[in-house]
Amino acid sequence: MVSPFKFLQEVRTETEKVTWPSRRETMITTAMVFVMVAISSVFFLVADQIIRILVTFVLDVGGWQTALTQGGPLMFVAVGGLIAAATFYMVRARKK
Length: 96
Hints:
elongated
């Protein structure tokens, strides 16, 4: 087992070997992270709105929304199960 003093010496030796980024490189990569977060946020906002519109459209067809509100929790579970089964089937079919 290595003594704590020896361990700290080795850590210091290893940190001296590291090539640390310059201030400019750090600023550029930080800006890139913020830009990618903004782009991802907009993408997921748009994707979420499209999915919301599609689900609302599907549930409105044939009075599903009324049936869901009158059917209670059992109807929500049934519709959720159908959606989960369809998703599982699509993912499984895609892997083949």
